[in-house]
Amino acid sequence: MANLHVFFLLFLILSSFCESKSNDRLTQATSLSPGNMLISEGRVFALGFFSPTNSSRSLYLGIWYHNIPDPERTVVWVANRDSPISNSSLVKLTVTNTSELVLFDSDGRTVWMTANTTTTGGPGAVAVLLDTGNFVLRLLNGTDIWQSMDHPTDTILPNTRILLSYKAQVFGRLVAWKGPDDPSSGDFSVGMDPSSNLQIFIWKGSLPYKRPEVINEVSVSGGTYQSNTTSVMSQLLYYRGDGFYFSYTVSDGSPYTRILLDYRGNLSLLSWNNTTLSWTLASYSPRGCDLYASCGPFGYCDMTAAPTCRCPDGFELLDSLNFSRGCKRKEALRCGKENYFTTMPNMKVPDKFLHIRNRSLDECASECTRNCSCVAYAYANLSNDGITGDTSRCLVWTGDLIDMEKASFAENLYIRLGESPAITVYHMSLCLFGLQQSSKKKKKKKFSWIQLD
Predict the structure, then answer these.
(1) Per-residue confidence at 441, pLDDT binned at 50, 70, 90?
(2) What are phi and psi of 63, to 5 degrees?
(3) Residue 404's domain is classified under what CATH number?
(4) Where is average pLDDT lowest: 115-119, 175-179, 384-388?
(5) Radius of gyration of the chain from Cα atoms?
(6) Are residues 281 and 157 in the same domain?
(7) How do residues 136-154 score in pLDDT, each as one tens digit?
(8) Where is the Apple domain (predicted)?
(9) Distance of CA 395 to CAs 198, 334, 385, 408, 415, Å?
(10) Cα 239 to Cα 220: distance, rounded to the nearest angstrom
(11) CATH code (residue 107)
């Protein structure tokens, strides 16, 4: 009898062990219904059904941190964000015989499904929730044919990669929730500039809302910084094949970390505080200067100055009562005359640039100097990694300079001004000389002017 009791206990332990090892996946023989969850192997993330509030009847399939309890439960991915289910009865997520993930509502209608374009690898698939928070659909031969991180909602997790563009076409965007308790697609999104792989925008609808810096030698070689007292974050932009990706990692032992685009249009890095049981800001972007084009054409924002909207050397405010109208030149540019360039250090370079590939700094300057319509240029050396498919980054501008900021950016911006200071001084000397000669000879005409064409 004692042996039977020991055998029974051993059976329960083994059963529990097998269950804990298998509840991170969904097979073609199983399905997931409301009230049940998949839990990643290390018990970091859970996948299941949730309602944003207790009073809400809308049901969503999502992924959240398993060890963060209500009411702080943090959802990082939602499958059917724009197609909520109103009746939880008979709802189920299944892996079909055609190796697709399908979510059915109570009437058996398809609410959401994956798109499987892979035709090789043999029949059969499983869906696995990983400790990175990535939910993958995997053929039995080990080939991943779909993954949730290629279809993000409002969050980027460490140790995952986000496909920003594919074959120069915008692919993935973060899209904010509509509200704090509404996972449906909101007004704000983050994605690549459709006209260039060199910059990322925060969009409000289809209009630019905020713009981080243009890709330079820091961002392509992997920016690393202390995100708090115990964590170091490294981020990287890189090409792999035809895809252009963003990824970031955090140091071992770091707390839970995530990049979030919130419903107000703020992009921030958040860390979980186990003492206060809340999310804290590890890094916040954008700042007050980053509202797109807030200082108007040719104006730049400087948070260390008052007022924050300033004009470059050689420019003046168009309207001293309305800084958003920007700045105008004190002296017009004239083609055929010798001009000079003023250097503005530590700048976020303007929008609407032309990218000229594989130029040295001198060649980049020459591209602008010999073109009458060029008003500014900027250069960055990308040869540390060459991962953007180029060894340098020469940018030139032929129109208004829009959305500039002066801060701790690793950029020099060279803006074209009127006649060279040396020529101007020479002309002034001639003018003074003429005045002196006129005075000495005591002619009726007291002043002898030199025309400065």
Answers:
(1) very low
(2) -120, 135
(3) 3.50.4.10
(4) 384-388
(5) 30
(6) yes
(7) 999 999 999 999 999 999 9
(8) 335-431
(9) 10, 22, 19, 19, 12
(10) 10
(11) 2.90.10.10
- Which of helix, strand or coil describes residue 177? strand
Verify that 144 and 156 share a domain, yes or no: no
Residue 220, helix vs strand vs coil: helix
Do 123 and 186 belong together in one domain? no
Q: What's the rounded Cα separation, in Å, for the pair 355 and 374?
A: 13
What is the C-alpha end-to-end distance of the chain, expressed in Å?
113
Q: How many domains does the chain have?
A: 4
C-alpha closest to that of 77 among 92, 67, 65:
65
pTM reported for the whole predicted model: 0.81
pLDDT tens digits along 53-76: 877 789 999 999 999 988 889 999
Say if residues 174 and 164 touch (Cβ distance below 8 Å): no
- Res 357: pLDDT: 86
Q: Residues 414, 446: one domain?
A: no
Distance CA 237, CA 220 (A): 6
Q: Which residues constitute the domain of residue 27?
A: 23-148
Structure tokens at 122: 């043999």
In whole angstroms, how far apart are CA 104 and each of 86, 234, 382? 12, 40, 49
The residue written with tokens 């003429």 in the block is 434
320's tokens: 């001293």
